Amino acid sequence: MEDYVENKVYEHRVLKRLSQKELADAVGVSKQTIYVMEKNNYSPSLVLAFRIAEFFNVDINHIFTYVKGCDQNEK
Length: 75
Hints:
Distance between the termini: 12 Å
CATH superfamily: lambda repressor-like DNA-binding domains
Shape: globular
CATH topology: 434 Repressor (Amino-terminal Domain)
């Protein structure tokens, strides 16, 4: 059991009709970073999490959720 950060990046990106590349360019990362983040295989730095939340104009807690002591495969 490990702590991890769950996110709703995919949902927000699709609602804005953006490609992974467009979002990546907007927040200063690679398309691959967005891809692995959307698969919940990567927890972004706090700075990147704030950049993404600011880009979508929502509170950071609306996109990112800290999950303590839960195995991702048990969800």
